[in-house]
Each structure stands twice: as structure tokens, then as C-alpha cells.
UniProtKB/TrEMBL annotation:
Pfam families: Alk_phosphatase, DUF7151. Belongs to the alkaline phosphatase family. This is Alkaline phosphatase. InterPro entries: Alkaline_phosphatase (IPR001952), Alkaline_phosphatase_core_sf (IPR017850), DUF7151 (IPR055575). Keywords: Phosphoprotein, Signal.
Length: 614
């Protein structure tokens, strides 16, 4: 037998072998056959894996190369060692970690070869990335609000443990995307950012200040007069002008900073309805965020002469109070407040939306959501709570029921993909952030797991050859994974060291948890309570606590915090970006956060298509 060692040319060699015809004439008029067998890592002939190639004559004419018909056997081996001389080498090669990593390398190489192979080359051999333009018919941006790297890691472990594994080896849906990088989250005027400035950067390609929405850094927060001339165009608006369907989803109020940055221009993120605005801003003509959402179509058309668009096809989230008058007559059937609405101008924006979209469906509970026909619904507006939607763990306690983030994502895609020109969708898991502010790792992680399920749903409903999906966060939190717990130790539990069955103790003699917060309201032992916001009715309890008899894995446990604060704060480190689909390979390395807009714009060719419509 011949042992052929190939390294860089292995791909070419296999292609050449694969190109041989089975039907060539052989000796004595018989048919010659070639058979290929994939070899695993650790094979005697190909220690690093490869392909066994056998050739011969089909003597019995059964169309298969039987063992006694093989005339020649050769091997195309993966680069590396070509002999297994020692037990040590076999131990390494047969190790499942080693094999899994080798397979990952092969997969990554294959993905990059596909990317490079389908892109034209410049004179110096570089990829001409401008040819990526327009490859993405659809663009979906997923934002895990407050989902820092430590949150992703802990949620990955928790989901794995919930499925019966150790957890550390588990992968969330977006962990498996082929391209990833980092985003620097600072705002123009702040080292540690807020959601308004960060989401504006992602949606417009321009970094801006804390607390302002859809405007550049030349604005003065809270000054209505500084908005004019400083407005930014968002990716969602470009998609709308280009003729694509557009949608946004959030488990927070739909007027909250992250979703608002897709459609609104505001000198202050807190101007969610007219009652939140100073009188001077109202008199000066600035419009509240909820009104801007309902009037999105007309406001966009007013900025560009001759433009005719059909408005947002899908809007779902919380925040009903900002759309209703401050009058009990307008309460929804599932209102929990005596007066649900906040608006002091008497406007019922839900009625105004319905008047603007006679073909639209307005819903506010689970039954209404379930009844939506995605094939015939042209416009969908869902407001499922007075304020933010429920935490995923607490969703079953909602008065009239709420759809999950993954359910809303599926429904949105099924409505939006009725447009042959494609769609743009933004999906936010807003309550990851709120759970961290409340100091509840349990709620933050269970909402992150549901967020990953929403990404999984989108992957299942779209084709990665025409849909760019980007998953990221706007910022992180002061949330840590610490101590030296052994493999498989409950991520929500107390630290138990390697080789031990008892919780480790700190220098003060008390046990401590793997997860914790640098600041915040601190320790809570609320048992089965699934609403993280219950902490706000209690006095802060920062500092060390004796956790000896406390079940730290219970939903109502809130981790200890070092520095007492009324609410835990954001953090300033980089966050992850994960991507799949056309243009996804542009996500790599460390980037300014506003780079995300430019990747979406290039891949979807949004600006050029929009300009062609104007």
C-alpha cells in the first residue's frame, strides 16, 4: 500500500479524486471503480485523519467495489504526524478534546474557503469586500441588553446543567455561529455606556452621547432645540425606504432606549410619552417617542420628498401605558393598575395606529397573539404589558398571558418574509439588563437562555445564504464568575472546590457563590419568587452575608454585592458579536460598536437600495 502525506494540497487532492468518473472502461471491458472512506483522527495509517482511496475492477458487475476486487489502496492524510510510533501519540490523537478541536479547525477552514472562494479577488489577491453588497436579502439584529461575556458564559453553563450535563461544554445557539468578534461599547461622553448611545451607534453607524436617541453627539441632552439638524438615519429606516418589510421586538417597553433607537429621534431617552417631557420641549414641537412610533410612516415620508412607504409591519413588546390616555376608560382588559395609561394629552395612540393601518391587527395578550394569521396579516402591533413584559421565568404569572421572545421572533419572521424584497428585523431581550440591575443572576440567565432560543428560531426559519444574522449586546454589567468551583458545580450554587463535596469558605469563614456583583442592592433570599423586581421593595443589603443555610440556586436568591447602590450598574468592557450569513465574515477582531451598522448596511446594500428609491 502507498502512504501519501499531503498537507496544504489535501483539499485539491480530494477534489481531484472526487472528480473521477465511476464509468471509465477497465481491463477486459469491466468497469473501474474508486471508493473513498473518511478516516477518523487516530487511524493507524492517518493519525490526524484523512481519506482512504481504493480502486479496482467491478468483476461481478454489482456496481460496488468489493474487498476482493480492490487492486490499489492509497491514503490522503491530514497534515501532521503520519505514524503512530508511541502510546503517547495515540493518547493525544484519540483524546476526544483533541479530536473535537481538530474537527472545529476543519469546519472553520471550510467556512473560510467558502467565503474566499465565492468572493472576487483583487490584483494583489485580497478579497474585494465591496462585492458583498446586497448579498443579504434579509437582516436580523439580535440585541441581548446587558448581555456581557460573563452573562453568556454563565447562561451557557446553566442551560447545559438544566439539560443534565456539566454545563461548561454546552453551547448556546449563537455560540455556534461561524464568525465572532468584540465591540467597544463606550459612548462619546462616557467610559461606561447606556443603551441609548450604544444602540444609536449600532443602528446608525455613528457613536453618540449617553441618553440621546437617533441623534449625533452635537445634541445637548434634554434640549429639544438641538435635535434639528443632528438626526441620524437608521438601518431600519434605510430598509423601509428600500422597500423591505421592517419590524422590531422587545421584552422591554417598545419605547425604551434600545427599540426606540431604531425609529425615533429624541433629545432624551426618557421622553417615552408626553407626560415625561418638559413643557418647553412640548411647546417647541418635539414629539414623544411613542407618538414617533405610531407616526413612523408619515414622519419618514416628511423627511424625503416624494417618498411613499408602508410603515413598520411588525411591532411587539411592552409599554402600553405610553400609548393610552391617563383615563381608566382606556384601560386594557388585563390592566393591573387602576389607571393604565400615562398620556396627559388625551391621545389614544393604539386607536391612531389602527386608523393608520386599516389592514393591521392590534393585540395585547396571548390569545390575540395566537390568533394572528401570518400569511394574511399586513401589519401587526402587539403591546403585551403596561410597562416591561414579564421576565421569562415569571411569564406564567401574567394576567392575560404573554408570548415568549422566541414565539414573537417566529411570528415576526413569518409575517415579514411575505415580502419578496426581504426584511429587516431587530429583536431585543430587554429584561436581561433589568434582572442584572436587580441583582438577580437567575432571571438574567433564564432570559438569556430564552434569547438564545429566539436566535435558534430565527436560524430555523431563514436561509443563511440570504439572511445575515448578528447577535450582540449593547453593554455589559458588573457581573462576575469567581472562585475555584469544580467542573459541573451548579453555576448558581456556592463554590465547591475540586475534590470536595462541601462549600469552600472565604477568609471570613463563610461560604460564597460563584456568581456575584460588584455593586447593587445585594443579598435577597426570596425563595420561589420569579420576579427579580421584588428586590426594590426592600432595603439594600450589600456586603457579606452568611449563606450557610441559604439555597442560592432558588429563583428568588439575589447575589451579594460589594458596593451598596440603589441599582446595580452597567460595566464598560467589550461585548461579543456573533454572526452568520452573507457578510458575516466581516465580524472579527475588536471593533468600534458603530461598525455593526456598516456591516449590515454593506451586506444588505441598504443605503444604495434606499437611494435608488429616492
Amino acid at each position: 500500500m502507498k502512504l501519501t502525506k499531503l498537507s496544504l494540497v489535501i483539499g485539491t487532492a480530494l477534489l481531484a479524486i472526487a472528480g473521477c468518473d465511476d464509468g471509465d472502461d477497465g481491463d477486459n471491458g469491466l468497469t473501474s471503480l474508486i471508493a473513498q472512506t473518511q478516516l477518523e483522527v487516530g487511524d493507524t495509517n492517518c493519525p490526524n485523519g484523512g481519506t482512504q482511496v481504493q480502486s479496482g475492477l467491478d468483476n461481478n458487475t454489482n456496481g460496488t467495489l468489493d474487498a476482493d476486487e480492490v487492486l490499489d489502496t492509497s491514503y490522503v492524510c491530514s497534515a501532521g504526524n503520519t505514524s503512530v510510533a508511541t502510546a503517547e501519540l495515540l493518547t493525544t490523537l484519540n483524546n476526544p478534546w483533541f479530536g473535537a478541536a481538530q474537527n472545529k479547525i476543519a469546519e472553520a477552514k471550510s467556512v473560510w474557503q467558502q467565503v474566499i472562494g465565492t468572493q472576487p479577488r483583487s490584483a494583489n489577491g485580497g478579497v474585494v469586500t465591496t462585492k458583498v453588497a446586497g448579498k443579504a436579502k434579509n437582516v436580523i439584529l439580535f440585541v441581548g441588553d446587558g448581555m456581557g461575556i460573563s452573562t453568556v458564559t454563565a447562561a451557557r453553563i446553566l442551560e447545559g446543567q438544566m439539560q443534565g450535563g456539566n454545563g461548561e461544554e454546552h453551547m448556546l445557539s449563537f455560540d455556534m455561529m461561524p464568525f465572532a468578534g468584540l465591540a467597544k461599547t463606550y459612548n462619546v461622553d462616557a467610559q461606561t455606556p447606556d443603551s441609548a448611545g450604544t444602540m444609536t451607534a449600532m443602528m446608525s453607524g455613528v457613536k453618540t452621547d449617553v441618553g440621546v436617541i437617533g441623534v449625533d453627539e452635537d445634541i445637548e441632552r434634554g434640549d429639544c432645540a438641538t435635535v434639528a439638524g443632528n438626526e441620524l438615519v437608521t438601518a431600519l429606516e434605510l430598509a423601509e425606504i428600500a422597500g423591505k418589510s421592517t419590524g422590531l421586538i422587545s421584552t422591554a417597553r417598545i419605547t425604551h432606549a434600545t427599540p426606540a433607537a431604531t425609529y425615533a429621534k429624541s433629545a432624551d431617552r426618557n421622553w417615552e410619552d408626553v407626560s415625561d417631557m418638559p413643557e418647553a420641549a412640548v411647546v417647541a414641537g418635539c414629539e414623544d417617542i411613542a407618538a414617533q412610533l405610531v407616526n413612523f410612516e408619515s414622519l419618514l415620508e416628511s423627511r424625503y420628498a416624494g417618498l411613499d412607504v408602508d410603515g413598520l409591519e411588525v411591532v411587539m413588546g411592552g409599554g402600553r401605558r405610553h400609548f393610552l390616555p391617563k383615563d381608566a376608560m382606556y384601560n386594557s382588559p388585563d390592566a393591573v393598575s387602576s389607571v393604565e395609561g400615562d398620556r396627559t394629552d388625551g391621545r389614544d395612540l393604539t386607536a391612531e395606529w389602527q386608523a393608520n393601518h386599516m389592514d393591521g391587527v392590534y393585540i395585547y395578550d396571548q390569545s390575540g397573539f395566537d390568533a394572528v394569521d401570518t400569511e394574511t396579516t399586513a401589519h401587526l402591533f402587539g403591546l403585551f404589558n403596561e410597562s416591561h413584559m414579564q421576565y421569562e421565568a415569571d411569564r406564567a404569572n401574567d394576567v392575560a398571558g404573554e408570548p415568549s421572545l422566541s414565539e414573537m421572533t417566529s411570528k415576526a419572521i413569518q409575517v415579514l418574509d411575505n415580502n419578496d424584497d426581504g426584511f429587516f428585523l431587530m429583536v431585543e431581550s430587554g429584561r436581561i439588563d433589568h434582572a442584572h440591575h436587580a441583582g438577580s443572576a437567575y432571571n438574567a440567565l433564564t432570559d438569556t437562555i430564552e434569547f438564545a432560543k429566539a436566535v435558534e428560531a430565527a436560524l430555523a426559519l431563514t436561509n443563511d445564504e440570504e439572511t445575515l444574522i448578528i447577535v450582540t449586546a449593547d453593554h455589559s454589567h458588573v457581573f462576575t464568575i469567581a472562585g475555584y468551583p469544580k467542573r459541573g458545580n451548579p453555576i448558581l450554587g456556592k463554590v465547591v472546590g475540586i475534590g470536595s463535596d462541601e462549600p469552600a469558605t472565604a477568609s471570613d469563614g463563610m461560604p460564597y457563590t460563584t456568581l456575584g456583583y460588584t455593586n447593587g442592592r445585594g443579598f435577597r433570599n426570596l425563595g420561589a419568587e420569579t420576579n427579580a423586581d421584588a428586590t426594590y421593595g426592600l432595603d439594600p443589603a450589600a456586603g457579606r452575608q452568611d449563606l450557610g443555610d441559604v439555597d442560592t440556586t432558588s429563583p428568588g436568591f439575589h447575589q451579594e454585592a460589594l458596593v451598596p447602590m440603589s441599582s446595580e450598574t452597567h460595566a464598560g468592557e467589550d461585548v461579543g458579536i456573533y454572526a452568520q450569513g452573507p457578510g458575516a465574515f466581516l465580524v472579527n477582531g475588536t471593533n468600534e460598536q458603530n461598525m455593526i451598522f456598516h456591516i449590515m448596511n454593506l451586506s444588505g446594500n441598504l443605503a444604495e437600495q434606499a437611494n435608488a428609491k429616492l
